[in-house]
């Protein structure tokens, strides 16, 4: 099978969380309505998600990674079973997204929910990293 | 009989009346033609008033008179010829229709032209007449930005997206004119530019997408060829606004269906998904169009912007940064009193403007710019 041409592979936990947000709102068909992302489909978004997860496999740990990969596969099955968003399958697919976000949040920086992530302290000037 | 004397059978009524006057010194009663008031815009089929070409009503009824011939299509090839069409079908020019009886058409053919979609010359644009329909720099999106006092909030013009304006006119020709204009503008900067098209879009959505794509291409060409980033700032604002609007509608629907679990509040739940969606889509758009968003580049998506002015360097992370403008998508109204906004202005890249993008559904004044404080 030919490799799906992806648009962008999310890098890191934060970008995968963003990707999951996009999937939550554009499911179950994931089509782009603006024409700026031609060819976006269920194939491309899941390829991007799975590649993104592989990229942080070490950081996630094997157990979490396998669970996330399993949820991704389940999610896809649900969305493919309900492309018109008419049955409970799409809802189950979105439940998978919520569970994946919870796992990733826990694997993040340990910030409690609701704390904005756009502020922080960089490495000290004295000890640049 | 001299050859230049016309036969009586084909003399006009006016000529016959004049000859009768010469012979008899009397005028023929009732021979004078019906007097008509001059109106350059009437339908020659029935004499009824029509509307001036280019006016808004001319689009609803695409037939109008053109005695002066100023709206005739040009014979020169258009930039539309630059299309790469796999089917090889080039866009056709506006069809011309001849009306009237065959005999009258043979003597004085009346040619009607479909509306060409030219801009209404009477429409006011720019200056006191309102914003341009297609802003190229951020000051045209926020018209009072240049004159605004430091730290003030400047509202955006209404409907600055104007993505479907030409398409909304339900005129393929008007859309075509816009496409040709955009291609010409791009080729002015990059003569080698070719717009890949699968042919003339047939739907409103397809027309809007084509214009959206060309506007982004135009901004990217300016950025790459001329190192001019301002058009890209406008396009990024447009993309983010559009995505925010769309995501907001989807997120509200999901929330009301009980599929977005709130942690703190409804706004927090909806806002988080909107933010993530806008950022993910923006990354993909930049990636597809090969825009480098790595650290140190003028275009960033969710990149740390450090403030090294103090002893300990801190950072803020705007949703996007394009040149000297930071963009932030949010549901809540943020001002200079917001620590996050002040943090953006304190960052090392010293933005001149922070653009706050909020979904259009939130009402007037949703999106605005905050000018750099002193």
Short note summarizing the structure:
The complex is a heterodimer of chains A (129) and B (374). With 129 residues, chain A is an all-alpha fold. Chain A contains 5 helices and 1 strand, in the order αααααβ.
Tell me what the structure shows.
The complex is a heterodimer of chains A (129) and B (374). With 129 residues, chain A is mostly helical. Chain A has one domain (12-107). Chain A contains 5 helices and 1 strand. Chain A has helices spanning 12-26, 42-55, 57-60, 62-81, 88-107; one strand at 119-121. In chain A, α1 packs antiparallel against α2, α2 (42-55) runs antiparallel to α4 and α4 runs antiparallel to α5 (88-107). The longest helix of chain A has 20 residues, at 62-81. With 374 residues, chain B is α+β, with helices and mostly antiparallel strands. Among the domains of chain B are: 1-34, no CATH class; 136-160 and 238-371, no CATH class. Chain B contains 10 helices and 10 strands. In chain B, strands 3-10-9-8-7-4 form a 6-stranded mixed β-sheet, with helices on both faces. In chain B, a hairpin with a 2-residue loop joins β7 (320-322) and β8. Chain B is elongated and about 110 Å long. Mean pLDDT of chain B is 75; it is low at 58-65 and 73-131. Chain A binds chain B through residues 7-8, 10, 14-15, 17-22, 24-26, 33-38, 40, 91, 94, 98, 113-114, 116-125, and chain B through 205-206, 208-210, 212-213, 216, 239, 242, 246-247, 250-251, 254, 259-261, 263-264, 268, 272-277, 279-281, 283-288, 302, 304, 306, 308, 311-318, 339-340, 343. β1 of chain A pairs antiparallel with β6 (314-316) of chain B, so a sheet runs across the interface.
Tag the structure with descriptive keywords.
heterodimer, A: 129 residues, mainly alpha, 5 helices, disordered C terminus, B: 374 residues, alpha+beta, 10 helices, 34% helix, 10% strand, elongated
| Mean pLDDT reading of chain B | 75
Helical content class of chain B: 25-40%
- The strands making up the biggest β-sheet of chain B line up spatially as 3-10-9-8-7-4
The count of helical stretches of chain A stands at 5
- How many strands in all of chain B? 10
The radius of gyration over CA of chain B amounts to 30 Å
């Amino acid at each position: 099978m030919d490799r799906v041409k992806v648009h962008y592979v999310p890098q890191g936990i934060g970008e995968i969380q963003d990707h999951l947000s996009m999937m939550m709102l554009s499911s179950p068909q994931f089509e782009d309505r603006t024409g700026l992302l031609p060819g976006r489909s269920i194939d491309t978004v899941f390829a991007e998600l799975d590649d993104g997860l592989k990229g942080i496999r070490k950081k996630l740990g094997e157990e979490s990674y396998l669970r996330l990969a399993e949820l991704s596969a389940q999610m896809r099955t649900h969305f493919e079973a309900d492309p018109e968003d008419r049955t409970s399958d799409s809802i189950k697919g979105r439940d998978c997204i919520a569970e994946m976000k919870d796992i990733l949040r826990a694997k993040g920086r340990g910030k409690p929910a609701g704390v904005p992530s756009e502020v922080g302290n960089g490495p000290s000037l004295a000890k640049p990293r | 009989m001299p050859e230049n004397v016309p036969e009586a059978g084909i003399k006009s009524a006016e000529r016959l009346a004049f000859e009768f006057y010469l012979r008899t010194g009397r005028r023929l009663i009732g021979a004078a033609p019906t007097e008509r008031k001059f109106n350059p815009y009437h339908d020659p089929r029935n004499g009824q008033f029509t509307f001036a070409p280019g006016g808004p009503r001319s689009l609803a009824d695409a037939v109008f008179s053109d005695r002066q011939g100023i709206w005739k299509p040009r014979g020169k090839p258009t930039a539309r010829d630059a299309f790469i069409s796999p089917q090889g079908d080039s866009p056709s020019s506006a069809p011309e229709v001849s009306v009237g009886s065959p005999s009258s058409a043979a003597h004085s053919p009346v040619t009607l032209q479909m509306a060409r979609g030219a801009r209404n010359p009477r429409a006011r644009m720019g200056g006191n007449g309102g914003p341009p329909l297609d802003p190229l720099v951020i000051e045209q999106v926020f018209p009072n930005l240049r004159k605004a006092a430091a730290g003030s909030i400047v509202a955006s013009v209404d409907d600055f997206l104007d993505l479907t304006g030409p398409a909304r006119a339900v005129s393929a020709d008007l859309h075509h004119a816009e496409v040709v204009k955009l291609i010409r503008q791009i080729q002015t900067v990059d003569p080698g530019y070719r717009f890949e098209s699968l042919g003339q879009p047939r739907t409103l959505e397809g027309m809007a997408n084509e214009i959206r794509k060309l506007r982004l291409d135009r901004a990217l060409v300016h950025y790459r060829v001329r190192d001019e980033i301002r058009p890209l700032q406008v396009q990024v604002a447009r993309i983010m606004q559009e995505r925010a609007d769309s995501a907001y509608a989807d997120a509200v629907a999901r929330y009301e269906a009980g599929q977005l679990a709130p942690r703190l509040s409804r706004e927090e739940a909806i806002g988080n998904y909107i933010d993530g969606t806008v950022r993910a889509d923006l990354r993909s758009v930049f990636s597809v169009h090969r825009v480098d968003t790595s650290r140190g580049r003028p275009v960033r998506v969710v990149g740390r912007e450090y403030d090294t002015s103090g002893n300990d360097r801190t950072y803020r992370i705007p949703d996007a940064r394009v040149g000297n403008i930071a963009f932030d998508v949010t549901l809540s109204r943020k001002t200079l009193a917001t620590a996050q906004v002040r943090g953006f202005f304190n960052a090392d890249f010293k933005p001149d403007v922070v653009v706050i993008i909020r979904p259009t559904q939130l009402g007037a004044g949703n999106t605005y710019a905050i000018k750099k404080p002193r």
